[in-house]
Structures are given as structure tokens and as C-alpha cells.
Design a protein that fits this description.
Oligomer: heterotrimer
Number of strands of chain A: 0
Shape of chain C: globular
Distance between the termini of chain A: 34 Å
Low-confidence stretches of chain C: none
Shape of chain A: elongated
CATH class of chain A: Mainly Alpha
CATH architecture of chain A: Orthogonal Bundle
Low-confidence stretches of chain A: 274-279
Mean pLDDT of chain C: 85
CATH topology of chain C: Rossmann fold
Largest sheet of chain C: 8 strands, mixed
Number of strands of chain C: 12
Helix content of chain C: 25-40%
CATH superfamily of chain A: MetI-like
Strand content of chain A: under 5%
InterPro entries (chain A): BP-dependent_transpt_permease, MetI-like, MetI-like_sf, OppC_N
Family (chain A): Belongs to the binding-protein-dependent transport system permease family.
Radius of gyration of chain A: 22 Å
Keywords (chain A): Cell membrane, Membrane, Transmembrane, Transmembrane helix, Transport
Number of helices of chain A: 12
Membrane topology (chain A): Multi-pass membrane protein
Mean pLDDT of chain A: 86
Strand content of chain C: 25-35%
Largest interface: A-B, 39 and 47 residues
CATH superfamily of chain C: P-loop containing nucleotide triphosphate hydrolases
Chains: A mainly alpha (279), B mainly alpha (321), C alpha/beta (323)
Helix content of chain A: over 70%
CATH class of chain C: Alpha Beta
Distance between the termini of chain C: 32 Å
Number of domains of chain C: 1
Number of domains of chain A: 1
GO cellular component, one term (chain A): plasma membrane
Strand order of the largest sheet of chain C: 6-7-8-3-9-10-12-11
């Protein structure tokens, strides 16, 4: 109970965290409860084509008569799923690779650093485009490709964490009593260096959501799910007269991405406050 | 210093090789048959298949295709596009200028304005201006560029009709000389604004935080204790130290100058690389794809190496590493 | 002659709605050509005090009251321009973490040149360089250092550069803030020796801020012991360190290995450091003091002079009458 109170107090002490978490909770509720919140079947083709927002169609309808509000509600699932899973996989890859490079140092570090440098110089979005276009645009493919191309940031962060932790006394003593490298890596290095990674991964969720939206906008999203980017792409043609089709899903993207940015930023502030009092 | 440059160039070449092999094999081992796409029908007759296969060298084994391709690249020949039957280098060359014009304008504008605002906000840290800018930048960062482009088109082109919606020139009016330049500028306003809003926050934030960071360094205390005037401390010592992260970021933006704005180009129907990339991908135009990819990789590496060298000139600590 | 006279100095940090009392009612008199060591744990306010002398604390979050009288002028009351004339010319610092006390992207010579010209605007480059090289010679640095960057030097060399930098205008008061703490023992010893020689030669007055009691006993004439913003005991090193009157001074000395070579048991001080943001009643050290009496928790002890500049603030040595 005390812990919960402590965490709540911390959250309230940072404006960014408070706003970010509030938006996120709403989004998650929307995603979970989408069948109940959506006012219409998102796939149903109503007779009213490009109908203005009204009490019947809260965000209006698109060119085929689908209810935009219901599509936006269902789209939350796709965005959150892609964002969270991609960030999760890529931070695991990044943490492991960075942790190994930083902790072991020497030749291993040199080789891994070079690989990281190479990956940093890859035109990631272009690569994702090619792979998705060629190997098919199922949600799984999208997630895997994005995760495999976005771990470098985490790896660099974890590497520098591991390098500084490596020199600390408790690691040295663990080495002295003969704990194995793998054990030290998992028991000491990663747990002690993980907090900045968590903040960083939260921000990575944002970029993954933006990338997925871009892919769907280009028509390379999973055709079997509802995605905000795709709604925008479909609404593009009707833009001059039916502004609502593009506007609402875009706003949904902005809010979602913003919430993760704010949470990540808020965590960073809590982790390294600029002012800790003084000697 | 020389070692440092040599090391960077090695990494660059490695990257080009790696990414090139990656795409080449990704594409060649892809499911789906390009012949069908080339023939324009699901069931091409055997003669046509044979003809096309021989013409594009698809009958050779993949390692031989790879070898041939490398040989040709070294001669400066990127091959022919399957779709238009024109040299890949010519296709790229036609689109390159438009893309570079657009991105370079956007990047330069974002760097200058973003850095300037960031430095100003840092000097007035905690002020209303500072807090307003910081909040605005969060929101700007969360906006997908392609959507922002659409909204700008909606407002300025559709609603008010003051700016053109798409393209690079007015195709109906055959402008010449200065009128043509003005026409292009008019067409650039919306896409460049989109790029600006998307990229400016990054430079704002970097400039702001690195100025604040530098201001809290111990050497600033030394200079203050020595009685140096605040303006001199700022102009001579803070700025030079604080500019380094901006240069790193600038190099990243410039590196992705060709591929990074594809989405925005497509929204504005800008006749640049964006459309070419999408066409190449959608139509499985392998020579064009690998050519574009090679082009992008090389440009990324060249820009990175150049900025690394500039970086080393500004920050003496780098030279030693 | 009194060079620096501090009367009832109070420094408060205002951070996140809290008021942190970093220095409380500090009074200290430093004579010309004295060398005074100020010792205390981290958080004792010794660095804050040192920084306040030239108003180097961030103005938005600090509140300073009291007098800091340097050679007849109250440094807290004069305007910025007059303070600027005193900075570095009369009072100079060698900061802790000297590694970062110079800009990493400018050559050392250039930075020293700039700092020299703050007060000697008309000096030619040639004269300035000569002056700097002369100082390098004084602190045993080679001429080549002039054209190097800070990261190209070792910790000891950087520290020597910092000392040379502080001596640019031959100041009267030199403040060393943990200046040798980061160095290895041998280099630290060498540099301390050199500082003492320079002091003789240049007739410097020195304040040495450190948590290392042995440095003070080796290099200073006088010592002032600070704890949680309070000055608990001050006087000549031979008095204070041989017969410490304040229980905290005793604990502090016990927590360091004996200099005379006797093998005493090393002891930490039990209890934890007080929270400086809450209002405190009684003696600040009472919670951790082995000899505390009832009165210690009720009344703040008054500072009494025992003899010859030896001052103690403790109920055990009198000083009950302070509300």
C-alpha cells in the first residue's frame, strides 16, 4: 500500500507523467472496450457516404460510408499493439546486445559497436518499406521488421550504462567471488542499468506508432486490421470536402504518440532531476 | 586525426557493403516473380518469359547476378529499370534535384530557427516563452508528417486557396525565368513548412538542453569567478561547446535527406525520390530498387563522414579517440 | 590585520518550495597571510560558503544575509561592477573537479589569455603569454602546455594549470575548494608542498576547503570545523587537533587514520546527517552526539572563545545562554 502511495506521489510530482498517464489510461480503456464504445460496426458500409459529423456518426463517415468514429476506436488496438510490442522486442534485443558489449568490453565491444554503427547508418524506413512490400504486410511482419531495425538506440544506451557499472565495486566484488559473466550480466548489470532504458523504450513506442501509421498511409499496412494511417490514406481523396475523415484519426495518432513522449520524458525527469539540492 | 578519418571511412564502406548485400539478397530471394510483373500479365507465354529472363540476366544463378551487378556498379552502371527500360542512374538523376531542393531548404530552415529559438529559450529558462516553446515542441513531435501535410493542404490550399496543393510547378502556366523560380517557391511553401514543423523541435530541444548543460559546467564557474562578462562567456565559450550536439543531429538529418521525406513528398505529389521509391517498391523494379538503395546508402555515409570530420575539428577530444 | 571578516552569514537555498539552510550564523575572521582549513562532511556547507564569497551561487535560488568584509569592503553589498574588479584580481579560486574547470574545446593558453585580459585589457599577447609561461614555470609545468587542450593533460597537470590560472593576477586571497581531493597521494603531496612554497613567496592568504583532516593538519595554520551549516569549532590547528573540545571534532578526527602512526581504531560517526530543510531546535549535532545532555536538544549553544582565537559552540564548554 505504501508503495502504491509512493508511486502515485511521484507521478503527481511530474506534470508530464500525470498528463501522459491520464491520456494513456483512456487510450487503453478505449482499446480494450472498443466493441462497446464503437457506435457502429467499423466495417459496415452505411448508405450515407461522406456524411458530416452528427449525433449518428460522431466523426462522420468515409467515402464508402463507414463510421469514422468506430474505425478510430478500433484503430487504437492496432496502434497500441504495434507500438508496445515493437518497443518491447527492440529493447530486449538492444539491452542484451548493449549489455554484452559494454560489460565484456575489448574485442566483443569493438565488433558490436561497429555493427551498431552500421545499423545506425541504414535508411531504416526505406528498408522496412522494401521488406514489407516484398514479404507481405501482415501485422507480424510489420512488428518483426520494425523491431529488428530499431534496437540500436537502446543498445547504445545500455552499452554506456554497462561500461559505467562495470567499474563499480559491487560488480568487481561479484567477479572476485567468482560469479559467472552471464550471471553478473543478468543479475547485476541489466537490473541496475535498466531504468533509463525503460524511459527510452517508452519513447520508442511513439516512433513505432508513427512508423506504423506511415506504412499504413502508404498502403503497406496489414489489410486485415483497422489502422489510423489507413483511414487517413483512404480519406485523402475526399480531403477538400470531407475534412473529418483525415482529421480525427490524425488527432488520435497525435494524442497517442504524445502520451508516450510525455511519460518517457516524465520518467527521465524523475531519474535525473536537474537539481538535487547542493553541498 | 588521420586515424580517426580512416576509421570513419572504413565504417562507411562497411555499411555500404552490408546494406547493399542485405538488399540485394532480400530482393533476389523474395517470393513472387518479377517476370510476371514485367510481362504485365499473370500468365505470360514461354517465349516472352525466355526473352525477358535473358534480357535482364535473371537466368543466371544469384551469385553470378551479384557479381555482374558489382562489376557494373564499379563501371558506374546501375543497370536498366525493368519498368521504363531507362538507365537507373538517369531516373534517379531526374528526381534527385527536386528532393534535395526540398529537404535542404527544410533542414536549413529548421536548424537555423530551431537553434536560435533553443538558445534564446535556454537563456530565458523558466520564462513563459521557454515553457510555451517546450510544450509546443512536445505536440509538434507527436504529429505524423504526412498528416500535417494533409491538414496544411486542407487549410491553405482547399479552404483559403492561397497556395498550390501539389507538385513543383504550375503545369498549365509555362513560366520562364524569374516567374518560374517564384512559382517553385510558391509550391515549396507548404511542404517546407511541414518539414520545418516536424524537424524544428528536435533542433530547438538540442540547442536548449546543450546550452543549459554547458552553462552548468564547472568551467563557466571559473570564468564567472574570474569576472568575465556574461555576454563574452556566452558568445565565446558556451556557444562553441553547446553547438556540438546540434552538428551531430544535423548530420543525421542530412544523411537521410533522400529517403527521409518520401512520405511528405508523396502527400504533396512532389516530383522527387519519394514517388520513385514507392513505384520501385510496388512494381518490384529490382534494378531501380537496388540502385536507389545504393544511392541512399552512399549519400548517408558520405554525409556522416563529412560531418564527423567537422565534428572533430570543433571538438578536439574526438580526435584522440 | 584582518583580511576577510565574516559576520553572521546565513545562506538559504530555495528549492521546490523547500528552504534549505546551507550555512547558519557563520562568523569567522581570517588574518592576512593566514592559511585556514575548513573541514566537514559533504553537505556541511563548506563549499557553499566558499562560493558565496564572490557571489557565485545561483542568484534565483539563494538568499544570503550577513557580511562578508574583504579588506574593508562588504562584498555582499557592492554592485556587480565593483565586485568584478575584485574577482580574480584580489580573490581567486581553485575549484574542485579541476578536470572540468576549463573549457574542453579551447586551448589552455587561449583560455588563460582571455582570463588575464579581463583585468589587463591593454596587455599585449606577447606580454600575456610571457606572464602565463612564467606562472607555468612556477607550478612546474612545461611551456608546451600552453598549446594543449585540457583533455591532453593528466589530473595532476590540470591541477597545476588551475593553480597557475588562479595566480594570474597574484591575488591576495586564494580559495582552494577540494583542490587536491581527486589526485593520487603522491601528486597531492607534491602539489600541497608547491602551494605552501608559493604562499611564502607571494604572501598569499589561503582558505582550504576539504573533507580531509590530514590535508589541513599538514598545510594549514588554522582550522574551522563545519557541520550541517554550523561552524562548531575553530582555532589554531595545533590547539584544535591536539585537544578537540567539540564532540564532533573528536569524532571527525577519530574517523581518520592517525597521522602520528599510532594504530587507533577507525570509527565512523553513528547516526545520520540532519535534514536541513526542517526547522531545527537545540544543537544541530545533538542527535548524533555521544555526550549530549538534555539542554542540547532544547537550546542552541553559544560560541565561546576559550583562548587565543579558539572558539567552540558546545554546551559542554559553556555557552548555555543563547535562545
Amino acid at each position: 500500500m505504501k508503495n502504491v502511495q509512493y508511486i502515485l506521489k511521484k507521478i503527481c510530482s511530474s506534470k508530464e507523467l500525470l498528463i501522459g498517464i491520464t491520456i494513456l489510461i483512456i487510450l487503453i480503456l478505449v482499446a480494450i472496450l472498443s466493441p462497446f464504445i464503437a457506435t457502429n460496426d467499423p466495417y459496415f458500409l452505411n448508405d450515407d457516404l461522406t456524411a458530416r459529423p452528427s449525433s449518428k456518426y460522431i466523426f462522420g463517415t468515409d467515402g464508402l460510408g463507414r463510421d469514422v468514429f468506430s474505425m478510430v476506436v478500433w484503430g487504437a488496438r492496432t496502434s497500441l499493439k504495434v507500438g508496445i510490442v515493437v518497443a518491447f522486442i527492440s529493447s530486449i534485443i538492444g539491452t542484451l546486445i548493449g549489455g554484452i558489449a559494454g560489460y565484456l568490453g575489448g574485442k566483443t565491444d569493438k565488433i558490436i559497436s561497429e555493427i551498431i554503427n552500421i545499423f545506425l547508418m541504414l535508411p531504416t524506413f526505406f528498408l522496412i518499406l522494401i521488406i514489407i512490400a516484398i514479404y507481405g504486410s501482415s501485422l507480424t511482419n510489420i512488428i518483426v521488421v520494425m523491431a529488428l531495425t530499431s534496437w540500436t538506440g537502446t543498445a547504445r544506451l545500455m552499452r554506456s550504462q554497462a561500461i559505467s557499472l562495470r567499474e563499480r565495486t559491487f560488480i568487481k566484488s561479484a567477479q572476485t567471488i567468482g560469479e559467472g559473466n552471464i550471471r553478473i550480466l543478468f543479475r547485476h548489470i541489466i537490473p541496475n542499468g535498466i531504468f533509463p532504458i525503460i524511459a527510452d523504450s517508452t519513447m520508442a513506442i511513439s516512433s513505432a506508432i508513427l512508423s506504423e501509421a506511415g506504412l499504413s498511409f502508404l498502403g503497406l499496412g496489414d489489410p486485415n486490421v483497422i489502422s489510423w494511417g489507413k483511414i487517413i490514406a483512404n480519406g485523402k481523396v475526399y480531403l477538400p470536402r470531407s475534412w473529418w475523415i483525415c482529421t480525427f484519426p490524425g488527432l488520435a495518432i497525435v494524442c497517442t504518440v504524445l502520451s508516450f513522449y510525455l511519460i518517457g520524458e516524465g520518467m527521465n525527469h524523475l531519474l535525473n532531476p536537474k537539481f538535487n539540492g547542493k553541498d | 586525426m588521420r586515424d580517426y578519418i580512416r576509421k570513419r571511412i572504413t565504417t562507411g564502406i562497411l555499411t555500404i557493403l552490408f546494406s547493399f548485400c542485405l538488399t540485394f539478397f532480400l530482393i533476389r530471394y523474395a517470393p513472387g516473380n518479377p517476370i510476371k510483373v514485367l510481362a504485365g500479365t499473370e500468365n505470360p507465354n514461354p517465349e516472352l518469359i525466355e526473352h525477358l529472363t535473358a534480357k535482364y540476366g535473371l537466368d543466371k544463378s544469384i551469385p553470378i547476378q551479384f557479381g555482374n551487378y558489382i562489376k557494373n556498379i564499379l563501371k558506374g552502371d546501375l543497370g536498366y529499370s525493368y519498368m521504363s527500360n531507362e538507365p537507373v542512374s538517369k531516373l534517379i538523376g531526374e528526381k534527385l534535384f527536386a528532393t534535395i531542393l526540398l529537404t535542404l531548404t527544410g533542414v536549413i530552415l529548421s536548424v537555423i530557427v530551431g537553434t536560435f529559438l533553443g538558445v534564446y529559450a535556454a537563456r530565458k529558462a523558466g520564462s513563459i516563452f521557454d515553457r510555451l516553446m517546450c510544450s509546443a515542441c512536445y505536440v509538434f513531435d507527436a504529429i505524423p508528417g504526412f498528416w500535417l501535410g494533409l491538414i496544411l493542404i486542407l487549410i491553405f490550399a482547399s479552404k483559403f486557396g492561397i497556395l498550390p496543393t501539389s507538385g513543383m510547378y504550375d503545369l498549365r502556366a509555362e513560366h520562364q525565368g524569374f516567374a518560374r523560380v517564384l512559382d517553385v517557391v510558391k509550391h515549396m511553401i507548404l511542404p517546407v513548412s511541414t518539414l520545418f514543423i516536424i524537424q524544428m523541435p528536435m533542433y530547438f530541444r538540442i540547442a536548449r538542453s546543450s546550452v543549459l548543460q554547458t552553462m552548468s559546467e564547472d568551467f563557466i564557474l571559473t570564468l564567472r569567478a574570474a569576472g568575465m562578462k556574461e555576454n563574452k562567456i556566452f558568445n565565446k565559450y558556451v556557444l562553441r561547446n553547446a553547438i556540438i550536439p546540434t552538428i551531430t543531429k544535423l548530420s543525421l538529418s542530412l544523411a537521410f535527406i533522400i529517403s527521409g521525406v518520401a512520405l511528405i513528398e508523396i502527400v504533396f505529389a512532389w516530383p522527387g525520390m519519394g514517388r520513385l521509391i514507392m513505384d520501385a517498391i510496388m512494381k518490384r523494379d529490382y534494378p531501380l530498387l537496388t540502385g536507389v538503395y545504393l544511392m541512399i546508402s552512399v549519400s548517408i555515409c558520405v554525409v556522416m563522414i563529412i560531418t564527423d570530420i567537422i565534428y572533430a575539428l570543433i571538438d578536439p577530444r574526438i580526435r584522440l579517440e | 590585520m584582518s583580511l576577510l571578516n565574516i559576520n553572521y552569514l546565513n545562506i538559504v537555498y530555495k528549492v521546490k518550495g523547500k528552504k534549505i539552510k546551507a550555512v547558519k550564523d557563520l562568523s569567522l575572521n581570517i588574518e592576512s597571510e593566514d592559511s585556514v582549513g575548513i573541514v566537514g562532511e559533504s553537505g556541511s556547507g563548506k563549499s557553499t560558503f566558499a562560493m558565496s564569497i564572490l557571489s557565485l551561487l545561483p542568484k534565483e535560488i539563494t538568499e544570503i544575509t550577513g557580511d562578508i568584509i574583504f579588506d574593508g569592503t562588504d562584498l555582499l553589498k557592492i554592485d556587480e561592477e565593483r565586485l568584478r574588479q575584485i574577482k580574480w584580481k584580489e580573490i581567486a579560486y581553485v575549484f574542485q573537479k579541476s578536470m572540468n574547470s576549463l573549457s574542453p574545446v579551447h586551448k589552455i593558453g587561449l583560455q588563460m589569455n582571455d582570463i588575464y585580459k579581463i583585468h589587463e585589457a591593454n596587455a599585449t599577447d606577447k606580454d600575456t603569454k610571457e606572464r602565463i609561461l612564467e606562472l607555468f614555470n612556477l607550478v612546474n609545468l612545461s611551456k608546451g602546455v600552453y598549446n594543449l587542450y585540457p583533455h591532453e593533460l593528466s589530473g595532476g597537470m590540470i591541477q597545476r594549470v588551475s593553480i597557475a590560472l588562479s595566480l594570474l593576477h597574484y591575488p591576495r586571497l586564494l580559495i582552494l575548494d577540494e583542490a587536491t581531493t581527486a589526485l593520487d597521494v603522491v601528486t597531492q603531496g607534491q602539489i600541497l608542498e608547491e602551494i605552501m612554497e608559493l604562499e611564502e613567496k607571494l604572501k598569499l592568504t589561503r582558505i582550504m576547503i576539504t573533507h580531509d583532516v590530514s590535508v589541513v593538519s599538514l598545510t594549514c595554520k588554522k582550522v574551522a570545523v563545519m557541520y550541517a551549516g554550523y561552524l562548531l569549532e575553530s582555532g589554531y590547528v595545533e590547539d584544535v587537533f591536539s585537544l578537540p573540545k567539540h564532540p564532533y571534532t573528536r569524532e571527525l578526527l577519530n574517523s581518520y587514520p592517525s597521522l602520528t602512526g599510532e594504530r587507533n581504531r577507525l570509527k565512523g560517526i553513528p547516526g545520520s546527517f540532519p535534514d536541513l530543510s526542517v526547522v531545527h531546535r537545540g544543537c544541530i549535532f545533538a542527535d548524533r552526539c555521544k555526550d549530549s545532555m538534555d539542554i542540547c536538544f532544547v537550546r542552541e549553544p553559544k560560541t565561546v572563545e576559550i583562548s587565543n582565537d579558539w572558539k567552540v559552540a558546545c554546551h559542554l564548554v559553556g555557552g548555555e545562554y543563547n535562545g
